[in-house]
Amino acid sequence: MKTAERILACVGLLSLCFIFINALQDAPTDENFEKKLINDYNVYALQVPENLNFAGEAMPLSNPDILERMDRELLVNTYWQSNGLLMFKRAKKYFPIIEPILAKHGVPDDFKYLAVIESGLTNAVSPAGARGVWQIMKTTGRENGLEVNTNVDERYHLEKATEVACKYLIRAKENLGSWTLAAAAYNAGTAGVSRRLKEQNVTDYYDLLLGEETGRYLFRIVALKEILSNPGKYGFNFREKDLYTNIPTYKVEVDTAVTDFSKFAEKFGINYKILKLHNPWLREKHLNNKSRKLYHIDIPKEGYYQ
Question: So which residues are the signal peptide here (predicted)?
Fold first, then answer.
């Protein structure tokens, strides 16, 4: 073999070795994941996708104002990395509860992202008095059949609160004519959005001049939808085991008063803290229940809190 051929052969062999070693380094191992965590940090301008929509209603991205506002929310939510990762983790836990309730009522699946921007999928408390994942006001909750008092507040009951959100959104859609406007109404009120449409003589959310919060509202929802639907595209790296999971529970019927939930919890092999984690709508350490109402209390299955 000629010298030049030998050199080429050696170079080829070394190249193959390098590719093999590099492949091993890129394997999804915990060790490699930690290396990437330290070394892979870059900031890029983002390309706004051409065809974004909310509930099947297209965003008019050919409008430069709309494009810039969408770009802002994609940037803010992509590079607020800690918050973004928490949204991925919580979404895995809570979306499976929210999605079938939306589907049952015929509310588009995109509205689960409304809950994300309302509360970060936590039982948040707003300065205005809204509560829970869906940030429901006291009056709205009571008008839609929720029990709301110092002893029991079902705005913190995720399934029941999602039902109320669906009812509100359906009515808003009927009154305003689109799901986009219904989403805006969730933030500013149906009457408020309707009044602004008439005052400004327009029919579309994207043509309205609104205050800061409501003006950003739909853009934030669509940004979270885009990012949570495409984690790799926006630089979010995680494994399935990094995400939160919902603990399986079974329901216990209670139609009497409960004088001490600590003792009640002990009967099921858990403590008061665990009971409250699964039933945040129980606001005090006892249950009055003078009317002998039937409640369903979630108890985690055995083996998850040992």
Answer: 1-23
Residues 210 and 282 in one domain: no
Q: Cα 122–123–124 angle (5° rounding)?
A: 90
Burial 25-53 (b: 16+ CB within 10 A, else e): eeeeeeeeeeeeeeeeeeeeebebeeebe
User: If DSSP codes are grouped into helix, strand and coil, which group holds residue 102?
Assistant: helix
Residue 70 and residue 146 in one domain: yes
Spatial separation of the C-alpha atoms in residues 293 and 276, rounded to whole Å: 19
Specify if 22 maps to a domain.
Answer: no
For β-strands 53-54 and 295-300, DSSP reports them as unpaired
Same domain, 205 and 262: no
Strands, DSSP E only, in the chain? 53-54, 57-58, 249-254, 295-300
Q: Same domain, yes or no, for 224 and 279?
A: no
Dihedral sign, CA of 103, 137, 214, 229? negative
Range of the domain at 117: 53-242
Same domain, 132 and 279: no
Q: Are strands 295-300 and 249-254 parallel, antiparallel or unpaired?
A: antiparallel
Q: Residue 42, SS3?
A: coil
Answer with the one of 242, 262, 280 that is the final residue of a domain: 242
The pLDDT tens digits along the chain (306 residues) read 444 445 444 444 444 444 434 444 444 556 655 555 556 678 889 999 999 999 999 999 999 999 999 999 999 999 999 999 999 999 999 999 999 999 999 999 999 999 999 999 999 999 999 999 999 999 999 999 999 999 999 999 999 999 999 999 999 999 999 999 999 999 999 999 999 999 999 999 999 999 999 999 999 999 999 999 999 999 999 999 999 999 999 999 999 999 999 999 999 999 999 999 999 999 999 999 999 999 999 999 998 887
Q: How far apart are CA 111 and CA 114, in angstroms?
A: 5
